Amino acid sequence: MNAGRKIIIVLMLCSLLPLQAMANGVDYSAGFVPEAPKGFQAISGQDFEICYGPGSEGDIDEVADAASAAYASVHAFFRGAPFHPTIIVASAHEEYEEILNAGSLPEYSVSSGWGDGSRSAIVIKRPDAVPNFRVAMAHEMAHIATRSYIRGYKYALPEWFSEGLAVYVSGDLPGAKMGMVEDNCVNGTLMSIDELERVHRLSATDNVTADRVSLAYMQSGLLVKYIADKYGNESLLQVMDHFGPIGDLDSVFSSVIGDTPNEVNFQWQKELKRELDARDGRILEQSVHGYVVDHHGRPMANETVSFTALRNDSPVQGTVYTAVTGEAGQYSANVTYGPLKVVSEKPEYAGFNDTITVDRGRSMFLNVTLNGTALEERLAREKAERDRRNMILGGSGIAIVCIMAAGFVYIRRRRSE
User: Which Gene3D superfamilies does the record associate with it (predicted)?
Assistant: First the structure.
């Protein structure tokens, strides 16, 4: 199992072991917040506190650097929402389990975020045990910041949105994982909102596969990114502002975004599918047109022009598009976008071989010239040779006639004598 996929399975631990707290006279679900074991040392700072045991002393500088960078970016996104987490560094897996008081956890469990505000904690293994340590730190801080920002039902936020937001804010959208999302999009197997929620809630169990969990995190992150790209980061904050008092994300989406989560998910998948179809050449929104002419500019009918896709970012690479000229020498071909190799050949003509670049959604006019100078020169030489021979043969014929005529005159004269 890929370590990058395994890491995300345990990010849901923050939703386990709920306690109850009172806020403004209303019951809200609050998360269990772990504490550092006895004997751990603590370094307190303005934004966070780091607790560590003897086995993690050599990692503190790296932990502090990662935490500082994560806090700065997350704090800025959430517009200064107050939170002051305690970062507890576990030197080994057994220590990680002990701090979480969670019994037996899989070895690939590496980090988790708990609580909100000043009553919050991040439990994370030492850096060399965590793939993408800085991203993992930012992801957990984003969870704490989300709950710190929301006023009210902060623990009722649906998992798909909470995890998607943490993925987006932490920048955990690696290109290496995009292929998985793209394949599922093309095959029509991306998840509905209900299925995303189900997979996230089961992510720390054996009831879903690691691949399914990895897809859920990527899809949730990309869906939140789609909302941010289309409506701005402000829209995400507005969703949380409106969610806190009522705890109903569908209603909030309808009022803030104008569509329900299901409708936004459908639209995102539709746009992604069209983008992939255009990228991979299943939809051709570009064209190249023009004339095939000879070196005198005369149109040439029934000539073939081929266009070979050179883009190496999709299966479209190597695809060949062809067009044949009509009686007026005109051609038109629908092609993919990007660099294309253009070839047109005709026996005894200097063919056309060039590379062009067609912009996305645009058309291009391109005249193709086939140079027949060499053919014309050969034909001219052959004609000159024929003319020379004909001249020689013609001269020989006249000479023969003259000789025959002279002979005839000579014979007549002899007979008359």
Answer: Carboxypeptidase-like, regulatory domain
Contact indicator for 82, 90 with CB cutoff of 8 Å: no
DSSP lists the bridge partners of residue 123 as 88, 112
Of 218, 281, 162, the residue nearest 8 (C-alpha) = 218
**pTM of structure:** 0.75
Q: Would you state the pLDDT for residue 404?
A: 67
Residues 6 or more apart whose Cβ sits within 8 Å of residue 155: 15, 18, 28, 29, 30, 31, 147
**Residues 388, 389, 390, 396, CA torsion sign:** positive
Alpha carbons 89 and 84: distance in angstroms, whole number:
16
* Average pLDDT value for residue range 49-69: 95
- Whether residue 146 sits in one domain with residue 207: yes
Looking at the structure, do residues 131 and 190 belong to the same domain, yes or no? Answer: yes
Count of Cβ atoms closer than 10 Å to residue 392 Cβ: 10
Tokens of 22: 């009172």
Q: Collapse the DSSP code of 49 into the 3-class scheme (helix H, G, I; strand E, B; otherwise coil) and give the result.
A: strand
Residue 322 and residue 389 share a domain: no
Instruction: Name, in order, each residue with C-beta under 8 angstroms of 51's C-beta and a sequence gap of 6 or more.
Output: 36, 40, 41, 42, 86, 87, 88, 89
> In which element (H, E) is residue 390 found?
helix 373-416
Alpha helix stretches (DSSP H) within 232-318: 233-246, 249-256, 261-279
In which domain, by residue range, is 329 found? 286-370
Taking the CA atoms of 55, 11, 1 and 164 in sequence, report the sign of the dihedral they define: negative
Same domain, yes or no: 70 and 108: yes
pLDDT tens digits, residue range 97-146? 999 987 777 777 789 999 999 999 999 999 999 989 999 999 999 999 99
CA dihedral sign of residues 369, 374, 377, 382? negative
Same domain as 126, residue 178: yes
Element (H, E) at 205: none
Q: What are phi and psi of 32, to 5 degrees?
A: -65, 135
Domain match, 261 and 407 both: no
Over 50: is that where the pLDDT of 3 sits?
Answer: no
Instruction: Kindly state whether residue 393 falls inside one of the protein's structural domains.
Output: yes
My answer on whether 317 and 414 are in the same domain is no
Please check whether residue 87 is in contact with residue 50, taking contact to mean a CB–CB distance below 8 angstroms: yes
262-282: per-residue pLDDT in tens? 999 999 999 999 999 999 999
Length reported for the chain: 417
